[in-house]
Amino acid sequence: MKLEFYKYQGTGNDFVMLDNRDSILPKNSTKLIRDLCDRKFGIGADGLICLENPENNTDDFKMVYFNADGNESSMCGNGGRCLVAFAKFLGIIENSARFTAIDGPHEAIVKDGIVSLKMQDVEEFKEGDEFIFLNTGSPHHVSFIDGVSHLDVKKEGAAIRYSKLYRDGGTNVNFVQEISKDTFSVRTYERGVEDETLSCGTGVTAVALAASFTSKTDSEKVKLITPGGELSVSFKKQDKKFTDVWLSGPAQQVFKGDILC
Ligand SMILES: N[C@@H](CCC[C@H](N)C(=O)O)C(=O)O
């Protein structure tokens, strides 16, 4: 079988993109997706995303996300932004989009190469010993530390992801250092990739909200510096509830191809 694919990246979080409106991806493709995402034997990516037909009259398309391990997972913020750029490339949308992902409906705007994606409202925070846990479409453990650039993120992230705190579903883990009152440096260990990725959209969203929740910032627009580039998150905070949450940053097509599988 020959599969046509596109490769996208958003601040270095990279994805195989399939136009699956005609169901080109066979059902139960866990091994195939894992093989396509393999960096030595396949295309190489942190995940694979299918653009599918919308399930209602108001959406432009539907998003289905798989981690590099081949399993369907929760929301991917950078992947959602890349999918919007892909939908624009395919001529499905112009400069705005509405779509549904596993965590519910999303809106997006494309302007000057920047894709801004509206994320779900957040009002549940768990405060632990030197960490905050919240769900921004995907689960995130956020830990504010010093010396983030020297950290062994794979080792320390895996220890938290597999700890008894998160035994059932696991979690993504973000290590964060404050640079200034509205700027934070973030490195993320991603569940389902089981390694550090260059950037994580739901992760930096969690970091921005956690920084505001813990009064580390009083700004409603936060800049996040990841190893793959810069993202921003804006929101409205009312007491401990966060609404109108937008994740913004670049999303680019890297190449297209056909792969035999
Ligand atoms: N890279 C993503 C997060 C993808 C989901 C995550 N690996 C999980 O399974 O929870 C992002 O940009 O949000």
UniProtKB/TrEMBL annotation:
Signal peptide: none annotated. The active site is at 76 (proton donor), 76, 200 (proton acceptor). It holds the Pfam family DAP_epimerase. It is an enzyme of class 5 (isomerase). GO terms for molecular function: diaminopimelate epimerase activity. Pathway: Amino-acid biosynthesis; L-lysine biosynthesis via DAP pathway; DL-2,6-diaminopimelate from LL-2,6-diaminopimelate: step 1/1. Its main location: cytoplasm. Catalyzes the stereoinversion of LL-2,6-diaminopimelate (L,L-DAP) to meso-diaminopimelate (meso-DAP), a precursor of L-lysine and an essential component of the bacterial peptidoglycan. Homodimer. This is Diaminopimelate epimerase. It comes from Christiangramia salexigens. The lineage of its organism: Bacteria, Pseudomonadati, Bacteroidota, Flavobacteriia, Flavobacteriales. The gene is dapF.
